[in-house]
Specification:
Elements (H helix, E strand, L loop, with lengths): L31 H14 L7 H14 L3 E5 L2 H11 L5 E4 L5 H9 L3 E4 L11 H7 L4 E7 L8 H11 L2 E5 L7 E2 L2 E2 L6 E5 L12 E5 L2 H11 L3 E2 L2 E2 L10 H10 L3 H19 L12 E2 L6 E3 L3 H13 L24 H9 E3 L8 H18 L1
Parallel strand pairs: 2-3, 2-4, 4-5, 5-8
Antiparallel strand pairs: 1-9, 6-7, 6-12, 8-9, 10-11, 13-14
Helix pairs in contact: 1-8, 2-8, 3-4, 3-7, 9-12, 10-12
């Protein structure tokens, strides 16, 4: 198949020269003075941890922004997953997706539960509600589903299944900051949602995360779990140290005013990719009613060999993409479970293209020309 390229020179033959490499992501940093403004506040307070004033302000600002009853900051997104499981009292078997970052499965295992994989909907790459229903057996107590790439799961179908079978629902919303569904934050669904504020995310605190809950008793358990299980000198329950520091919260307060612009810039880049590549690759679809955050730009090729050819060709030009998510988690050597063919297929064919606000139109043109040339060579 002849793939038209918008350039006369084949990117595979172009000299890379002094052109800088393009990585799959790049941390957004606010102007230094804006971060220093918040660091000065931390210095002035001498309150650098244990829910200091900046921590409290960020926590409340994010809670209001998402219109949820309870939101608690965490040291990272993986601890958020673990403590959400524990705060809800989940035990036994947990139905989960095999197409996610490994932390989703790891958190289930760390909490002494057994992951039960349910295959994905190949149209969205999110967990398939029909596969969830089919995976329910005695001992299943919860569903842990990921809004993959920030694309919402079929939350209404999952809610109906959970109510029918008396299951808890936790959403791994690590990719879904500021995503809305039918005009409401996606964080309003489920018994809990967890967020990652890792430096690679569109909103970040360098390292960090959060848990959203909708029940006061679960929130109280979570607050104890996050801080060693005691309140002053009263030791109430088992706990750990999952607190976010003031220095990390300060970064969050400095980044937050830029989020709308970050999403707009990411949308511009994704639109450029779509216009250039629509005829040669496919991508997961968005359900109706979603306001998207452009967290990732995944594209899918015909098969693994084609994907690997493109990955290597782009890397040779200093363009570094990633196989998000690979491998399918039902292939992990330390997990025994059912085979999920749709997830395995997606893991073999999907590539995430570079996406961050600093990418210029010249950068996206360089990326798309190199990708088109690689496909033309392969096909």
């Amino acid at each position: 198949m002849e793939i038209p390229a918008p350039a006369t020179m084949t990117p595979a033959m172009e000299p890379t020269g002094s052109r800088p490499p393009i990585h799959v992501t790049r941390t957004f940093l606010p102007p230094q003075e804006e971060y220093l403004h918040w660091l000065r506040k931390a210095y002035a307070s001498h309150h650098l941890t244990n829910q200091g004033p900046i921590h409290q302000e960020l926590e409340e600002t994010l809670r209001v922004r998402s219109d949820v009853p309870y939101l608690r900051l965490m040291a990272n997104g993986t601890l958020a997953l673990q403590l959400a499981i524990r705060a809800l009292g989940v035990q036994g078997k947990v139905i989960t997706t095999p197409f996610s970052y490994v932390a989703t499965t790891s958190a289930i295992l760390w909490e002494g539960c057994e992951p039960v994989f349910a295959d994905i909907d190949p149209g969205t790459c999110c967990i398939d509600p029909a596969a969830i229903e089919a995976a329910i057996t005695p001992g299943v107590t919860a569903i842990l589903a990921t809004h993959v790439y920030g694309i919402p799961c079929d939350v209404e179908a999952i809610d109906a299944i959970a109510k029918r079978h008396g299951l808890k629902v936790i959403y791994d919303a690590a990719h879904a900051f500021d995503v809305t569904y039918k005009g409401q934050s996606i964080l309003q669904w489920g018994d809990a949602s967890t967020l990652s504020f890792h430096a690679t995310k569109l909103f970040h605190t360098v390292e960090g995360g959060a848990v959203v809950l909708h029940d006061a008793a679960a929130d109280e358990r979570l607050r104890l779990l996050r801080s060693f299980g005691h309140r002053n000198d009263d030791h109430i329950s088992l706990g750990m140290n999952a607190k976010m520091s003031e220095l990390h919260a300060a970064m969050g307060m400095a980044v937050l005013p830029h989020v709308e612009r970050i999403i707009e810039q990411r949308a511009r880049i994704c639109d450029a990719y779509d216009q250039a590549l629509a005829d040669v690759v496919v991508k997961p679809g968005l359900p109706a009613g979603v306001s998207y955050n452009y967290a990732y730009h995944p594209v899918q090729f015909r098969d693994e060999a084609e994907r690997e050819h493109v990955l290597a060709a782009l890397a040779s030009q200093g363009i570094h993409c990633r196989r998000y998510f690979y491998p399918s988690l039902d292939e992990l050597p330390y997990v025994v479970g059912r085979t999920c063919p749709h997830s395995r297929d997606a893991a073999l064919r999907t590539l995430c293209l570079p996406l961050y606000p600093d990418l210029t139109p010249q950068d996206t043109d360089r990326i798309t020309r190199a990708l088109l040339a690689a496909l033309d060579e392969y096909r």
